[in-house]
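S., here's the first fold you wanted:
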Amino acid sequence: MRDTPAETDNASAARTRIREMIRLGEVEANGKLPTERDLCARFGISRRALRRALDALEAEGLVWRRQGKGTFVGQPPDPNGPLAAAIAPDTDPLSVMEARLALEPELAALAARRATGEDIARMHALAERASHAPDADAAELWDGSLHRMIARIAGNPILSAAFTLINEVRQEQRWQQERQQARSPELVAEYARHHAYIIDAINAREEDAARAAMRAHLLALKGNLERIRSKDPAQ
């Protein structure tokens, strides 16, 4: 089934579709993905959305690309995507924020215990891409990739599964629309500072500091979303 026109430029949705394709083993024996043209036609997504999704998956370490050869699976994806996709339509951004506040500070603390130097470098790269994204779609994609990487670094499969369940709603159009309103230049700069504090605490192996930095970041985001919704008479 093809995506609706409103979803064809959603890079987060494209990333999820590709992760599901990998999960189902719909790749060549050597792990090679179909060509970009084939993926765009198969998923009904734009070339821009596809390339952004592949960039994010590569930064997460899930795929790798070789010039002139194609894109290859780098490591197995999270197997809980289908369940998360089933739950996502029944959620809303604020309920997701409540769940994130219950989970992600602990994931950040675990990441502070287990992150490698390579992990830190990748987190900095993702944070940089999020803070300099050209539009809301790209910003959401890279922000989601950073938080997903922290969850993966935490190394707890049960918590990782829970993170996947609450994170999938980020590809929903309603989430994208509200997050776009919460991304003024001032707020983007604020979120970039939050990400830097989180990464620095993880790099310093300071579990309590990483936990506190993540919680402060999520509380700020939740507060911004609440203010946006309070001004919308449709909410």
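And the second, which I think is the more interesting of the pair:
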Amino acid sequence: MHHRIVIIGGGSAGISVAARLRRAGEDDIVLVDPASWHYYQPLWTLVGAGVVAIAKTRRRQADIVPKGVAWVRDAAVEIDADARVVATAGGMRIGYEALVLCPGIELAFDLVPGLADAMAGPNGATNYAAALAPKTAELVRRFRGGQALFCAPGSPIKCPGAPQKAAYLACDLWQRRGILGGAQVTYATGAGGIFGVPEFARVLEDVVARYGIATRFSSELVEVDPGGRTATFETTGPDGKTRTRLDYDLLWAAPPQRAPEFVRESPLGGTSAYGWVPVDRHSLRHVAFPDVFALGDVCDAPTSKTGAAIRAQAPVVVANVLATLRGEELPGRYDGYAACPFTTAYGKMLLAEFDYSLAPHPTLPLIDTTRERYDMWLLKRYGLPAFYWNLMLRGLG
């Protein structure tokens, strides 16, 4: 079969782009995605905090795909970018005039020996998977003291603030229960600091101090021994790399992440080990294939991989896809906008908004989002999900 526009991926990016294209009058669009359920993943932070049930974060994919968009409920397995053909696991071959690539991200637990077994064991959890986020709430609730490790890789991951959010919410609960004093909480990350935007980093440093969290920067989790309950970190310092082994009673870890295999192995994937799709950071057009655009977690735009970034990227991609099909200059420009809502306690949130310049980029007038606020917690819990389901996925916001 042949279609004018093919979209690979039915997550936040794919559905948003499809809805906007339909509103622009495009009537030959196919969406390729095998998922039965569509999740609003930003709420998994609150699932891990025991505030929201995982079932409340999902809806049937069939109810989300915009009317007038053909849905191929199958997985893409190969892209022939020269022939402009997408192959699926079920044997279909779909030709395209323009391709929008947004298949999301792959959790690479296998890149850290022992990590997958630790997550399956009684002391490990993460909020990065629907099956494991409820386990975070269970382990945090059962914790009575000891060593609690919260880990994040230094390589790009979706919602890079999520490991901190999990640590802050756990510490707040333990503080309310009077057991934080008997806990040794460590936040270890391969990144060089707490956050890349100084105005927000200062606030987060105060949060870390308030809870007594020990920080280990430039420290990558490289191995886990679930049986011995130890985690090994490789720390990069002025004198080179050193390895340290830490015991744990609770291990919360964000796994390394990468582009899906069919992207990494195609001409559209990048040269790094993670396979991010190389795009012009403003137009989001592929650097080598002018009829291909990428957005969301899979592209290499140098900003945080967040839903807020997708919201800003989707209208740019739509404008530029339509211009490409008409043979016109590309009008859309993405400025790198992204946002990270840091839940620093139950009932408190800091909304970090920024762009490529790593300067604050506030979008809520008259509200100081550089401090912890209760109204921002309400935005996280109620406002943003409502906006997502009712506006963003319908191409209206």
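Why I say that: The chain is about 25% helix and 25% strand. The mean pLDDT is 97.

Talk tomorrow,
H.
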